[in-house]
Amino acid sequence: MIGRTVSHYKIIEKLGEGGMGVVYRAEDTKLGRVVALKFLPPELTRDSDAKGRFMQEARAASALDHPNICTIYSIDETSDGRLFISMAFYEGETLKRRIARGPLAIDEAVRIAAQIGEGLSKAHAAGIVHRDIKSANVMLTSDGLAKILDFGLAKLSGRTQQTKVGTTLGTIAYMSPEQARGAAVDHRTDIWSLGVVCYEMLTGRLPFSGEYDQAVMYAILHDEFRSLTSVRPEVPGAVGGIIEKCLEKNPEDRYRSVEQFTEEIRQLESAGHTISRMSAIQKPKEPPSIAVLPFRDMSPARDQEYFCEGIAEELINALAQIEGLRVTARTSAFQFRDKNLDVRRIGKELGVESVLEGSVRKAGTRLRITAQLISIDDGYHLWSEKYDREMEDIFAIQDEISLAIVEKLKGKLIREDKSKLGKRFTVNEEAYNIYLRGRYHYNRRYEGGMYKAIGFFQQAIEKDPLYALPYTGIADCYNQLGHYGLLDPRLAYPKAKEAVARALEIDDNLAEAHASLGWIRTFHDWDWDAAEAEFKKAIELSPNSIVAHHWYSLLLGAAGRLDESYEQGLQALALDPINLITNTVIGLGFCWRRRYAEAIDQLQKTLEMDPGFALAYLFLGYAYGGAGRWDEAAAAFKEHIALGQEAPIGIGYLGWAYAASGKKDEARALLERLDDMERERFVPSFYRAMIHMGLGDHALAFECLDRAIDERESWMVTIKTNPFFDGVRSDPRFAVLLKKAGLEK
């Protein structure tokens, strides 16, 4: 063919060959331009009906005008009836060839994925499904564009139902489950194949493979693939989550449209620096990793839930002391409490190699604890053991389990770190069990639970006055009660300060206590330097402390150091990607940066993880308000209140939304509601100020804010950053307010 002229095209050189034909570079002698000619195999167009269908679809594809779709100039045939396509010629290489040199940088892969998605969006809008998206069908041009090739050819080939041996393995590996079954397909099959391409770009390998075609198809239909983070740990969870949603076996569970995929991936691309930072935060390549699930309560009375959670939490804390071992944080692992899911799926979602699960059965003073360590790759047990003990042996049981797991995962660490596993804060079994009950209630983060937790922590101290952890538990409870206005801060914070001082007196190297003191210095003392020193000390003592990184990010944000705040938030998020509070605070950080669209997106994603998480609704309403979407803001605040948060904070925010949107009567009614509430409980003046500010009653708002300073209300430390005050920053009274709060000198 080289040197031959076909129609008005002079063939110059062969570019490549595949199952869909041979491609040549040629010169268009009429227009004087270089083109690519694809000659289709004769067997594909022998049938006249098939040929007619192809011509119709190819004409539709040629009408697609988009930067990320290869331009088709014409469809013609040779004198002997062989079809060929004339299309644009691009300098560059196929994505398949690029991947052959190794996995792509994360930012590069995200950019290419977004471009492929936009090209597919254009095609799908025109009613055209590609059906054969794969890395070989994407051209990367020298000027940085991704071009989708071969629209219309997959339907001509009948490849959606081709299952016999001898078909191209690469194409079968990109098939969706519905394609592999020979079922009808729609645009969602392109979404699946795009997910495969993304996985391939980031890992250099395909999610489903096998020695022969049928083995690959079986894997597509039945097997789970290795999570991206287990293959390439530096891939951020946000990227992995998008790709894994594309690869849901049920089409209904994938993105409803490729536009949704593209929107999410574009948001990541626009925050490319975020991806780079998150990647840098991750651990080095594939360290041993484990998630510890809450143990199941098998006791006849089903009264050991606190103990089941407690032993899992203690194991997490013990294993986290082992350098080089990545341990999933408590909040992420405990999301799967009482969910009847295959352990391999849990491990995949958490991005770990192994999962520890177990059960507790108590009869009298006897305990039977079983524990199994399971490999995520194949679902087989790596180790299992059963322990029959008296209650007083619980510490020994924890040590045995922890050491056995570490021995299995990374035995060389035993000699180096065995002493770390053995650190105990009390030897009093009863005090320890009571402390676990307190943690159980504190972790539920509701007002009544806080008071229950304080009671249990006090009981634990009575059993062992030198047990430091219950003191930090008391401090944290009072910190949160004061912060959210559930208790007068002038009463709450001194109690917190007293408790944390006692904890540090017992153990001045207790990271939890330094983090708690950092909170007090931030939200009560308003002492930035002292607060920062405490958070840095906590992180030095426990680098993987999610709480320390999270609370430090709040301090930095309130101080106006927004980039540093965001960095600390990402540190916390990398340690625990599905921690609801951390994800929520990331959304609040976007509000502080006036990036409301990103805040709304972040908070909506948080609520996808748990639709009942009230705090996310509160800040979602805040983000909607910042964006001027007042009806949606009010709806979010109402949802927060409906979830049992009948507290002044929700009322204040809702009143602000009503007032700002012109519903002044409704706003004033909520002011009266706060007055009624104050007859029975403390009502922070800050929330009244919000409503007055929305109503435009600035004099009354500043009076309330002055009282809020006297009341040492926590949210006053945010006024330097908080966009809520953007409309009054030029008011002289605001400058006075900053000085009173110690935010300006």
Could you give a quick summary of the protein structure above?
This protein has 745 residues and is α+β, with helices and mostly antiparallel strands.
Name the poorly predicted regions. 156-170, 276-285, 411-420
- The portion of residues assigned to helices is 40-55%
The CATH topology label of the domain at 92-281 is Transferase(Phosphotransferase), domain 1
Distance between the termini: 82 Å
Radius of gyration: 31 Å
* pLDDT averaged over residues: 82
Instruction: Characterize the overall form.
Output: globular
The CATH superfamily title of the domain at 92-281? Transferase(Phosphotransferase) domain 1
- For the secondary structure, the number of strands is 15
Strand content: 5-15%
Class per helix and strand makeup: alpha+beta
CATH top level assignment of the domain at 92-281 = Mainly Alpha
Major pleated sheet: 6 strands, antiparallel
The strand order across the widest sheet is 1-2-3-4-6-5
The DSSP helix count reads 35
CATH architecture of the domain at 92-281: Orthogonal Bundle
Oligomer: single chain
